Amino acid sequence: MSYDSIFQKRMAVKGLSKYDRAMHRKSRSFNAWFQNALSRELVSIDGVSQYAVFQDQNQNNNKDLSDDKYVVVENGSNLKVGSLINWREKKWMVFTEENKTIPTHKQAKIKQSNGYIKWMIGDKISGDGNGHPAFIQNQTLYTLGVSTSGHHSWIVNAKMMMYLQDNDETRNLKINQRIFIGGAVYQVMFKDYVSRRGLINYLLEQDFVNSSRDNIELGIADYYTNHEENDDSGNENPKDVKEILITGPNKVMIGSTAKFDASVIENEATISDDIIEWTVADTESSVSVVEQDMNHITIRAENNFKKVGSVITIIAKTNDGTIGSKTVNITSPY
């Protein structure tokens, strides 16, 4: 082998360009840190055994609502949004994967699962009888928190937001289906596959426990019934011709306010109908509600760069149960 060939081979290992050489040094630096990190542990990600490094997140960033962490893995990892991580005998869900500007590794934000959700699929219990791990958060403080009964009576109406991994079984959980959470029954009023690819976001409304329908001991609602919410075609709410259109910006910069308007449309015509409930589904406490009335809501995004990249969903509901939603991204002012 000639001297030129040996030289070119050595240069190829280090990198043929200035960028390649810098990237090679950066990768070596990350690998050295990753191999020796004190928080490096052997875990299972979607059933695949591998090493991961865990980092604490400042609890002031999410108002102590959950013990969020960051997880760092090598580029070859199967980690993605929606992945389930077995770490220290607990289940953790991957919520947000960062797009690294220097792609030496993968990094994501994770939240600890705080409940298992069970429901009937035919004559079987979901999750091979164990249910599916979920991240559940009370949303009552982000809503009007009330509902109507009859024409004039107002009652407290709690809301929960729930995230499940997006898979064939969780997609089977339908609008209006009832599930147990912490001994209480909630009904699915909204679900979103789009905001976080890999996770399904459900907004839940409190319902009444019915011992003739619900198996309280197993924590499975509608255990004793074969109630089916869909028509024969499999479409949910097939006869709905009424919808809510929410208009407003798709992005809100941190530190700024934004107003959203709701219009109720029936048979392609705008009708006079008030919104009885607004809900801001927000896992990161990224926004606060400035004001709201029967047709408008104004929110303010927290002036915190750690909230950049957060996703919220604004949901409006009419008295007859019609639901409309809009997904909004929290962005940097620059």
Characterization of the model:
With 334 residues, this protein is mainly β. It is 9% helix and 44% strand. The longest helix has 19 residues, at 18-36.
Q: Biggest β-sheet: count, sense, barrel?
A: 6 strands, antiparallel, barrel
Biggest β-sheet: strands ordered side by side in the sheet: 1-2-3-6-5-4
Order of helix and strand elements from N to C terminus: HHEEEEEEEEEEEEEEEEEEEEEEEEE
Low-confidence stretches: 145-156, 227-234
Q: Roughly how much helix do the residues carry, as a percent range? A: under 10%
Please report which band the strand proportion falls in: under 5%, 5-15%, 15-25%, 25-35%, 35-45% or over 45%.
35-45%
Number of helices: 2
Cα distance spanning the termini: 54 Å
Radius of gyration: 24 Å
Tally of DSSP β-strands: 25
Rounded average pLDDT: 85
